[in-house]
Amino acid sequence: MKVHTFNLVVLCSMLLSTTCYCINPKFFNPSKVPNDEKPWDQTQATWYGTPDGAGSESGACKYGKTVENPPISKLTAAAGHYIFRQGYGCGACYEVKCTDNPACSGKSVTVVVSDECPWCSGYHFNLSGAAFASLANPSQQDTLRKLGQVNLQYRRVSCSFGDSIAFMVGEKSRSEYLEVSMEYVNGDADVHIENTISFDNISHVWGPTWSVFAGGYDLQPPFNFTLAQHYPNGIKGKTIIIRDMIPKDWKIGQVYRSKINF
């Protein structure tokens, strides 16, 4: 991943001065805070890939070319480690805007985390070319791109992808081992596939990918999934059960879609 910037500097001083919004988890339920009431944080943003592109052709979240199409429509971001969090941040939605340059429109746009920027500072956003250009005033996209880097305001917001979650069966799957990746998950929380009676050894692989191993025995599809929202500070949100998600005749690389979402 190439970072387009004239001066990508260490952002330690910025992080030290970032406002801390402290909450009492006993009285705070993030899922009930409207997006327009959430506070903004400060960081910096660069861009990568082609000027009008979706960033990486093969991002760390392994969404592939789906990010080029609606509902994401190339508005993606590669994120620093505090945002990416070993892949738990994959698919998270962030509202971003820039206001302190004449080329900036000051209007916000929602981007989806689809990649990691391992050499960026913790809260840095390396936006796709299309997302970076969307921060600009009309006809000033090239001016903003030439700057290479802008100060950015950001906040995590609730994704709204529709009524269906996509589950793709991974290429390493076999009769006794299942690997699935999730995409288009609604909400503003990390989502985990939890252990159930059917699966008592679900584990996180990387990004949006989870796996289960039957210990040498064949798995018995169809598979049900229990998905749970996990917020910061140990707060647990909504749980949903998706029944018969992966059928008996499942195939590697096949995408199966649920009929419910958060």
UniProtKB/TrEMBL annotation:
Family as reported in the entry's similarity comment: Belongs to the expansin family.
UniProt subcellular location: Secreted
Gene Ontology terms describing biological process: anatomical structure morphogenesis
UniProt xrefs under InterPro entries: Expan_Lol_pI (IPR007118), Expansin/allergen_DPBB_dom (IPR007112), Expansin_CBD (IPR007117), Expansin_CBD_sf (IPR036749), LolPI (IPR005795), RlpA-like_DPBB (IPR009009), RlpA-like_sf (IPR036908)
Domain Expansin-like EG45: 58-164
Domain of life: Eukaryota
Pfam families xref list: DPBB_1 (PF03330), Expansin_C (PF01357)
Transmembrane is among the record's keywords: no
Gene3D superfamilies (UniProt xref): Expansin, cellulose-binding-like domain, RlpA-like domain
Protein known as: Uncharacterized protein
Domain Expansin-like CBD: 176-258
Signal peptide range in chain numbering: 1-22
Organism encoding this protein: Arachis hypogaea (Peanut)
Keywords: Secreted, Signal
Keyword GTP-binding (UniProt): no
GO cellular component: extracellular region
